[in-house]
Every structure is written in C-alpha cells, then in structure tokens.
User: Fold these one by one.
Assistant:
Number 1:
Amino acid sequence: MTVTTTPTIEGKPIQDYLGIVTGEVIVGANLFRDLFANIRDIVGGRSGSYERILRDAREQAIQELQAECAALGGNAVVGVDLDYEVIGDTGSMLMVSASGTAVRI
C-alpha cells in the first residue's frame, strides 16, 4: 500500500476518496530508559532507546492507518500527517498519531 505525505501520487490517478483514516499509538516511559536518557543529556549524544521507541510507535501508527484504509477498500493513503505529543499528568506518555485520506488508485 502506498502511503505518502503528498496530496497525490504521480502517475496514479485517484479513482475514489474514501475518507479520513487515523492510527494512534501511546507508549509509556520506562524508568531505566529515562535514567539513561538523562545521563545522555548530561554527557551528550543520542538516545538510541528513545529513538527506537519513537520509530516503533511511528511504524505502528502507520500500520493502523493502513489497516483502516484497507477496511474501507482503499489501496493508498495520501496527505499523511504525523504528530508527536507528550501526554499524562507527569508527561510520562508519548502519543504518536498518523492521519491521512484513504483513496483507491
């Protein structure tokens, strides 16, 4: 299935617009991951554990988006927008959301 941030897919005309589809994933913070990320903040460098969590959450949100599209009979999602939001009373949760328009090309 084609998933793109652009409103069209070059060379593939859109036959039907099927509606807005979304995928959301909420992941909790981990005490040990947070501890090591704080150490990285002090000494510098990238936090591989957080990067993996973000990547996995983004991929899961896109998979949900694709499943919703397929359920509507679509074979592509255009105009995809990805958002990241810290949620929870203490900011201990991260939400990744993906939204776009399901289409049949």
Number 2:
Amino acid sequence: MAIVVGHLSTPEGSEALGAATAEARRRGSELVLVTAAAQDAEAGLTALHERLTAAGVEHRLVPGTGDLADDLVRTATESGAELIVIGLRRRSPVGKLILGSGAQRILLDAPCPVLAVKP
C-alpha cells in the first residue's frame, strides 16, 4: 500500500508532504510523491530524496504531467494507494463557494480516502 502526495513548493505543499510523511512512517507504507513537472528543479528533488531517506521513509518519485489532480488520482489508482494527502489554502469569501476545482476533483474521483491539511 502507498500514501500519495503531490510535491509543490508552497506552504500548502509543505504541510501536505509533512502529513504524508508522518502517515507513511506510522503505517509503514511507501510514500509516492507526484512531482509537478515544470516546477521541480533537479536540486530540489535531490534534497527531498535525501531528506526522506534520512527520515527512513521508503519513497519514490512519479513525474507529473501538469494536471496535479489527475496525476494524484491516476497514481493512487495505479499504486493501490490507501490514502491521498492534499494541502488546502484559505480562500476568499467568493472562493469559499467552491472548494477549488483541483481539490474537488481529487475528493470526488479518488479511489481511497483523502486527507486534507492546511498550513
């Protein structure tokens, strides 16, 4: 089984990665990181790999296609994930009318439970 999380260099992404790492460690599961294709620099991925290795978390990186919601759902389905972890940000009063199209697609299409965290 696996825990799937997207890798984004944002406060929400950092919070999601922290929660996913803790869940993977607690459950003894593999952590699968879906990378945002254009955003992730090689040096950043190397540092992330070293950090997770030092933490003793079994992990692997899956390159994204640019649509993080689709990438997370597809990766969760293909890996038989037991959990997807996403980060949410505060929304404006108008933005509160909708959760966010990406988060909504993940929640509705996910093949497993979804843990939403905020910074």
Number 3:
Amino acid sequence: MWSAFGPTNVAIHTLTAALALDDPTEAVGVGGQIDTRLLPAPLVGRRARLHVDLADGHARLGEDAVAAVHILDVARRASQLLRVDPTARAVLATLLGRARGSTVSVLRSVAEQAGVVT
C-alpha cells in the first residue's frame, strides 16, 4: 500500500487528534496553517474531510460563521459527505439550530439536500 506523510498530512492528523482530545482551539490553530492547495487534486475526499473537521472545531468554539463557510465548502466539493458522515451531519444540525438571519435559508437548503432536515 502506498502512503505519504508530508507536512500537510501530518498537520491534518494533528488537527484530527486535537478534536479527538476535545481541544478545538488547537485544532483550529493547526487548521489555519494548512494549505489545502498542496493536496493533490484527486484527494477531494481528504480536502472535504478537513473542512468538516474545521467546521467542527469552529462550531465548538462558537464561531458559527466560519464553521458555516467550511460546511458550505463541503457541500460544494463533496455533498455526499454531508449525507453520510455523522460529524458533518451533527455540525450542520448544530449550525442550523443556532443560525440567524440570512444564514438560516442557506444552511436549511444544504441541510435539506443532505437529509439532515426535511
């Protein structure tokens, strides 16, 4: 099996570990240093997973606007992830529950497409 562990992959694993250890501040800090443009183009799923994790970290910190941007990026890149991934679904439901103003309609549309709400 082929695998590669350059600085970008190590940073992604660090972010994931920080979330697992319930340290969203560390996760968001590490995530801010990751340039997803360095990932090969075919790694759409990896890039989308990173955005789910960043949305999770920002949502845990109450930074809903930033979390919503990441969820919208996931919806654009890999909408199927929002339908099947428990973390993505939970973050989307949380954001929708706390949304105000024009953000509600945008998130509701994504949530309906993902089957999070009907």
